[in-house]
């Protein structure tokens, strides 16, 4: 089998080295058939955006047409009528994926360096062109020397496109990869308004004039709202993971994964691979896989199924936003972590200022476009619409499990070992005291102490995450049918000779509850007996059962045994 190009995103390098390549060249055909002049194609990270953009660059490049033609030998695009466009246009291709500076001043210096290197490596011949006037050459010289002002830098795409059109007599293809990477960094480091202003002017100058470019493609993770970045681009068409167009051009389809597994000799792993890495829906196309995880699984087959994609995540924005989510979003998120598909309204674009409010629609949209959720069917109409959303696969599920573990931050006063030990030894008061102290000092991920309306599911998820450490030796059942209802948590040993068992029922104190927290815990305890939740444990032969009613109010807790 050919070498797998893990971490490589340069089309030319992959083809010249004869590495394994999954043919996405019909992306060119679909692009040229599309009526829009400029397209925005948001996709999650590591789904092949940069590799596809690199392919476009090599395909259209007029300066190296003959040299790059063999790169497409044997690919599907050779048989397409759009092959006529090979090597016919000047190309501008910039990627911003590495522009993640801590200040706007640093970001601007990185922009200047990027533009200087790009002109130096690709377009120095324009400085000696007889078709270019002296003002254009002076501008390019300032860019090369990193002497251009901010205003001049914002005109870079427009000036370079005009200059290339003068030299070649053809409007260029304009490709911008990962346009939102510097915007994410700006939001994280506190200079969002400056960066949005700069990027708005930078992109508008290059894409606004329909006579200045032949075709434009912009990729990123998020579809940032038009009023934020793209206000000057009246000719922009957006095709996200919710749209039919280009659905099979990013990520791997089921036939492509099947072929890869067959070529590697791992076809017997097909179902396990599907459970772990399948599950995305793009437009109407189901069973889309994350390429990064598939390639790593095949390359490192002896290590088995691993969360390759989520372990390389740069999810600072998500980690920042999740602690701020409102009660509605919290309930939806914890339903999702339990493996449910939920019906919810999501925003199909991102306004960064809205992220500060952490409304459910905005947070779910962020998670969806970032690859942490998938939409199982398409909406009917409107700007913000209802979808059935879910966690796509077992790999991404591990990321949500890590979120639960954030509830279990180490406490200076009491550790989780004391909680678990006192629970397993059925020392009631020690467990109650340890749980109370733990909540006060460690349970802060969702800032529980400042809220008066905290969903019971959050406390349920906290306890489930805590007890997950016991799963090797104990059965842990959540919301399991038992007796005449569903117990919140049932725990019993896998060792049938161990007579112990535990039943936990939770209550959350609402603002209008008149009773005390202790009385609410007693109600929870009574429910265990009234609903006969002990039946399941008894049927497995465990008779020494500790029943617990646990009532929560913010970071306060009361237990009844």
UniProtKB/TrEMBL annotation:
Residues 5-230 form the AAA-ATPase-like domain. It comes from the Bacteria. SUPFAM superfamilies: P-loop containing nucleoside triphosphate hydrolases. This is AAA-ATPase-like domain-containing protein. It comes from Persicobacter diffluens.
């Amino acid at each position: 089998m050919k070498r797998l190009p893990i971490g490589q995103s340069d089309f030319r390098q992959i083809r010249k080295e004869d590495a394994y390549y999954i043919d996405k060249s019909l992306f060119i055909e679909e692009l040229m058939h599309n009526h829009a002049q400029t397209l925005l194609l948001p996709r999650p990270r590591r789904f092949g955006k940069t590799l596809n953009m690199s392919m476009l660059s090599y395909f259209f490049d007029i300066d190296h047409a003959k040299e790059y033609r063999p790169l497409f030998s044997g690919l599907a695009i050779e048989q397409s009528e759009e092959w006529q466009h090979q090597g016919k246009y000047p190309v501008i291709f910039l990627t911003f994926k590495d522009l993640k500076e801590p200040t706007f001043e640093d970001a601007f210096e990185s922009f200047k360096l990027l533009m200087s290197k790009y002109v130096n490596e690709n377009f120095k011949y324009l400085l000696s062109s007889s078709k270019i006037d002296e003002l254009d050459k002076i501008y390019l010289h300032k860019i090369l020397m990193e002497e251009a002002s901010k205003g001049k830098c914002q005109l870079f795409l427009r000036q370079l496109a005009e200059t290339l059109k003068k030299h070649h007599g053809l409007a260029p293809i304009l490709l911008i990869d990962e346009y939102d990477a510097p915007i994410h960094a700006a939001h994280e480091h506190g200079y969002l308004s400056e960066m949005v202003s700069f990027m708005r002017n930078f992109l508008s100058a290059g894409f606004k004039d329909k006579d200045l470019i032949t075709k434009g493609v912009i990729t990123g993770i998020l579809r940032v709202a038009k009023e934020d970045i793209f206000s000057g681009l009246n000719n922009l068409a957006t095709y996200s993971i919710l749209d039919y167009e280009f659905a099979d051009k990013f990520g791997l389809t089921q036939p492509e994964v099947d072929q890869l597994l067959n070529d590697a000799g791992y076809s017997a792993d097909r179902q396990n691979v599907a459970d772990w890495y399948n599950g995305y829906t793009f437009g109407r196309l189901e069973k889309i896989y994350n390429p990064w995880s598939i390639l790593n699984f095949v390359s490192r087959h002896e290590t088995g199924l691993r969360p390759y994609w989520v372990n390389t995540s740069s999810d600072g924005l998500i980690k920042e936003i999740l602690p701020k989510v409102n009660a509605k979003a919290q309930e939806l998120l914890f339903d999702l972590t339990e493996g449910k598909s939920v019906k919810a309204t999501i925003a199909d674009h991102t306004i960064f200022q809205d992220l500060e409010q952490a409304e459910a629609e905005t947070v779910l949209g962020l998670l969806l476009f970032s690859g942490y959720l998938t939409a199982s069917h398409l909406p009917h109409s409107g700007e913000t619409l209802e979808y059935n959303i879910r966690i796509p696969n077992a790999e991404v599920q591990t990321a949500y499990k890590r979120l639960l573990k954030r509830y279990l931050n180490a406490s200076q006063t009491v550790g989780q070992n004391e909680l678990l030990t006192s629970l397993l030894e059925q020392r009631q008061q020690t467990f109650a005291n340890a749980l109370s102290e733990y909540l006060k000092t460690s349970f802060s991920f969702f800032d529980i102490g400042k809220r008066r309306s905290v969903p019971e599911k959050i406390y349920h998820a906290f306890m489930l995450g805590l007890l997950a450490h016991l799963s090797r030796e104990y059965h842990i059942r959540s919301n399991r049918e038992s007796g005449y209802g569903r117990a919140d948590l049932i725990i019993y040993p896998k060792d049938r000779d161990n007579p112990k068992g535990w039943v936990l029922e939770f209550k959350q104190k609402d603002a209008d509850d008149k009773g005390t927290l202790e009385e609410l815990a007693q109600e929870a305890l009574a429910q265990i007996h009234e609903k006969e939740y002990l039946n399941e444990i008894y049927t497995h032969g465990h008779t020494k059962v500790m029943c617990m009613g646990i009532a929560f109010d913010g970071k306060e807790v009361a237990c009844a045994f």
